[in-house]
Amino acid sequence: MSPRLLLVGGPGGSGSSTWAAALADDWAARGLSVGVVSLDPRFGAHTLTTHRDAVMVRPEVDLPEMLSSAARSWGLDPFVVDQALALLSATGGPALWQLPRLLERFDRVVVDAGAQLSGLVLQAHRLPWLLSEAGPLHSGWLRATRPVIALAMGSSAIDKAGASRLAAVAEDAVRLSELVMSRATASVLCARNGSPTAKVRHHACALALAQCRLGAVVTAGDDVVLCDGPPVIPMWSDLPRNWAEKLADPPRESSVRGDARDGAVTWELPLPFVDPTEVELEQSGTRLAVAVQESRRTFVLPSLLARHVATGATVRQGILGVTFEPTQPEGTS
């Protein structure tokens, strides 16, 4: 499937802006309207495009102000608001937030993410988690700092109007997360100009962790090796003809093997570029945090694992397998 949203990036100096501009121009030359978003407002791909239908798009959504205003209406803990806004403002947050709307305006959208590629795709998954935790975090703050108000409000830490606004923003965040994982989105990882393999693999690991489709790797030679086995990702030194149809689409879906009613089950996630020694896990109820190198993502586990605990993990043939055992009921041995 040819994508509609293309994320281009890699280590600093790897040529991502040049390639993002070339890909945007090629799409525009085929009669498509193309929106070009650069996370570097001064030297990004928008300064290199040549086709008139490859249009520069500035992030128009003032994400911090929008959420700050909503948070004030919710009456959220100021510390939580500050932390949330710091997170959302970093790593291209405003540009990320407007991508679904840009796809309604343009036939195709190209994002020149540069060295922020890994953070950008993971940011898309942090937004729903952060918004889903806003209510519980606020409840805890009220109980600790304003116990009388907390007692009066009971379980309604956020009033109905605030809860409605929070739900609307959370729905937008979920759609954004789903967009990053969908086949409508693909990424091109640039590894030219002597980019260290370790840095290139860092971005590849983050893309896998975010379940974002890695379509191709741009390299000047065969010196970049991301993994020993599958998936086979096309390596480009020049832009091939009909490149959009040639982008790889490796498996990215998580799955569960086994029957939770009968005992142990295994939760699996494709992580093809990961060294087993680099994986760290942390479970909290039905949430599982997976960390690889400096990248981290929290997954919501299937409900059937609600009474299971992670007891071990392996990475074999590019698949992370986490074993879950049922917890022992109280009073049993």
How far from one another are the termini?
52 Å
Determine and state the CATH class of the largest domain.
Alpha Beta
Number of strands: 14
Overall number of domains = 2
Which band does the percent of strand residues land in? 15-25%
The topology string of helices and strands comes to EHEEHHHHEHHHEHEEEEEEEEE
Helix content: 25-40%
Low-confidence stretches: 148-157
* Class of secondary structure makeup: alpha/beta
Strand order of the largest sheet: 3-2-4-1-5-6-7
**Mean pLDDT score:** 81
Shape: globular
Describe, in plain words, how this protein is organized in 3D.
The protein has 333 residues and is of the alpha/beta class. The protein folds into two domains: 242 residues, Rossmann fold (3-Layer(aba) Sandwich), CATH 3.40.50; 72 residues, Immunoglobulin-like, CATH 2.60.40.790. The chain contains nine helices and 14 strands. A hairpin with a 2-residue loop joins strand 13 and strand 14. It is globular, with a radius of gyration of 22 Å. 38% of the residues are buried.
Task: Provide tags for this entry.
single chain; 333 residues; alpha/beta; Rossmann fold; Immunoglobulin-like; 2 domains; seven-stranded parallel sheet; four-stranded antiparallel sheet; 9 helices; 23% strand; globular
Task: Give the helices and strands, then pairings.
Blueprint (H helix, E strand, L loop, with lengths): L4 E5 L6 H14 L4 E5 L15 E3 L6 H12 L3 H12 L3 H5 L1 H7 L2 E7 L2 H29 L1 H7 L6 H22 L3 E6 L6 H13 L4 E5 L16 E2 L18 E3 L7 E6 L8 E6 L2 E6 L2 E6 L7 E9 L2 E8 L7
Parallel strand pairs: 1-4, 1-5, 2-3, 2-4, 5-6, 6-7
Antiparallel strand pairs: 8-9, 9-14, 10-11, 11-12, 13-14
